[in-house]
Amino acid sequence: MTIPLHDDPAVPGVADLLQDPHTAWAGLREHAPVRRLTGPDGLPFWLVTRHPEVRALLADSRLSLDRGNAKPGNYRGFSLPPALDANLLNMDPPDHTRIRRLVSQAFTPRRIERLRGSVQRTADELLDAIAPLGRADLIADYAGPFPIAVICDLLGVAAEDRHDFRAWTDALVAPDPDRPEQARAAVAGLTGYFTALIARKRAEPGEDLLSALIAARDEEGGPGRLTEDELTSLAFLILFAGYENTVHLIGNGVLALLDHPEQLDALRRDPSLVAAAVEELARFDGPAPLAIRRFPTEDIRIGDVVVPAGETVLLALGSANRDPALLDRPDELDLHRTENPHLALGHGIHYCLGAPLARMETAVALTTLLRRLPALALDVPREDLRRRPSLRARGLLALPVRY
């Protein structure tokens, strides 16, 4: 069986995925579970949408994250300098194994749990500012600044530098095609800032994660140690991935609860549901519809299709999490699910390293919001809400609410 490059009008394509992804996922799972499409950048990619194949391929060593395995002319990624590009999202074993092992020593559950108090204070401080107003944009006023503050605490970034961090990250998360100089300035700003910060932390280490990573870089002897570019790139990845995904997880989660008032009421009445709620909200409408792009190191059969080596493969996490093969009633939001083996945080060796932090942040953000802002409701018609026009990230541009 061969899937054509050009869109078949009877089968959902890229425009459908941007406009109504969940409906498009369902159509693709049924009619073309492995489909070759043309992306917004004009380059082809293979999209895999059924849960069994997505889960298996997330852990398949024949799919490489190293862009060196991409076929020439098949992939055009965002250009970063070596100081930001030598990160886990571009690596395969053995480098990936070496770096993840070193990072895991610093990114421990105990360190994450130590942050809970400061995470709670951050949530309360942000809500202190907006609670008296009666209305707010939960993206700009809460979901956006919340993870930046948490990650800066984690990395040991001074409070006065956090505005720059958010501006730089926003410029990379949603670059303006008419102003490419903004993204270039953000890259230069982040590179310069992290280089200087690492020098300061090396001279005067603290109790933060970045100081621990520097210790792993400097004290780990032999070939297992981090290079300086790998150290800087790790700090960048923790900031970039931790910010974007958490903003969207909180924003999408609040909207899903507002769309399902019976589920919102259940969580208000029983805050102990929050751990299950975070898992279900991540499954139902997660922040990352697609896993990071992969490149087969050899021709690989996926279902009835043979994907040639070096072509771009995108694994649809958002589709896999709504696949009837995963669980019953996949299109329903149910905070009482007892089994929820979703793929929102990945699977296999590239499973999200920051998953414990993301879960803890989102749980604190939701429970504090519902406790502090009674009678929470949308402040605009539902159809007026707009999302980022992106296949890669699913997030709201704004979430106006009243309370």
Give a quick rundown of the structure:
The chain contains 17 helices and 10 strands.
Task: Describe what you observe in this structure.
The chain has 403 residues and is mainly alpha-helical. The protein has a single domain, classed as Cytochrome P450 (Cytochrome p450, Orthogonal Bundle), CATH 1.10.630.10. It is 50% helix and 8% strand. The protein contains 17 helices and 10 strands. The longest helix has 32 residues. It starts with 13 loop residues before the first helix and ends with a strand. The N terminus is likely disordered.
List the helices and strands and how they pair.
Layout: H1 14-19, H2 21-31, E1 34-38, E2 44-48, H3 51-58, E3 63-64, H4 82-85, H5 95-106, H6 109-114, H7 116-130, E4 135-137, H8 138-143, H9 145-155, H10 162-173, H11 180-203, H12 209-219, H13 228-259, H14 261-269, H15 274-285, E5 295-296, E6 300-302, E7 305-307, E8 313-315, H16 317-320, H17 355-372, E9 377-378, E10 400-402
Helix pairs in contact: 5-12, 7-9, 7-17, 9-13, 10-11, 13-15, 13-17, 15-17
Pfam families: p450
Protein name: Cytochrome P450
Organism: Kitasatospora paranensis
